[in-house]
Amino acid sequence: MTIRPILTVPNPLLKEVSKPVDAVTDEIRVLMDDMLETMYDAPGIGLAAIQIGKPVRVIVMDLAGPEDEPNPQYFVNPEILETVEETAPYDEGCLSVPQVYETIDRPSRVRLKYLNYDGKEVEEWAEGLYATCIQHEMDHLEGTLFIDYLSRLKKTRALAKVKKAQKFAPVAHGSDCDCC
Ligand code: K1U
Ligand code: ZN
């Protein structure tokens, strides 16, 4: 498994719409393994393939707490089938928008369909942090970032904060990064 560099704003790739995957092949499983390793190293609780520069509809996630056993989850070609009207706020962050946390309201429950690591189709409801995180990650597949939901002023401030942080740490690759 390889830790890949995570793209950060304003990289234009983060605005791309990702393409569906034809099938869950060994090549896709290697991508998912690398994404998971990259996400754990960051650290984060979710990652979309576009965040490591691959414009395909693949997401990894692990919502286990620090004391819990790891619980990796893999989503290929995820779709939201249904959402409830009720929304829930969450103080979201994004590895592609480092150091910025803002409260975003999203539907509190969503019904999902996706292919898992073995290529098996799964349909289930997500709620709580699972619902928040899968919606955040599925936004990445459409080229949308959580800061796109902010007012223009808040978004400008968020981007300025990232730019300032990047000035002092221009490259934030993982410790096992094999690209530099
Ligand atoms: O960049 C990403 O898409 C990952 C992002 C996922 C996310 C977080 C919060 C709400 C919605 C989606 C992150 O993982 S940001 C880092 C983070 O939340 C975290 C890091 C270490 C421990 C616990 C959480
Ligand atoms: Zn993100």
Topology record:
Blueprint: H1 26-41, E1 46-48, E2 58-62, E3 72-83, E4 87-92, E5 102-107, E6 109-115, E7 121-127, H2 129-141, H3 152-168
Antiparallel strand pairs: 1-2, 2-3, 3-6, 4-5, 6-7
Bound molecules: ligand K1U and zinc ion.
Description of the molecule:
The protein has 180 residues and is α+β, with helices and mostly antiparallel strands. The chain has a single domain (12-165), classed as Peptide Deformylase. The protein has helices spanning 26-41, 129-141, 152-168; strands spanning 46-48, 58-62, 72-83, 87-92, 102-107, 109-115, 121-127. Strands 1-2-3-6-7 form a five-stranded antiparallel β-sheet. The chain has a two-stranded antiparallel sheet with strand order 4-5. A hairpin with a 5-residue loop joins strand 6 and strand 7. Ligand K1U is lined by residues 43-47, 51, 90, 92-96, 132-133, 136-137.
Total strand segments: 7
Any guess at the CATH architecture? Alpha-Beta Complex
- The CATH superfamily turns out to be Peptide deformylase
How many helices? The count is 3
The low-confidence runs, each spanning 5 or more residues with pLDDT under 50, are 172-180
Order of helices and strands: HEEEEEEEHH
What's the CATH C level?
Alpha Beta
Distance between the termini: 17 Å
What percentage of residues falls in helices of 4 or more residues? 25-40%
- Give the mean pLDDT: 94
The set of bound ligands, ions and cofactors reads: ligand K1U, zinc ion
- Shape label: globular
Residue fraction in strands: 25-35%
Number of domains: 1
Task: Provide the structure class.
Answer: alpha+beta
Strand order of the largest sheet: 1-2-3-6-7
CATH topology: Peptide Deformylase
Backbone CA Rg: 16 Å
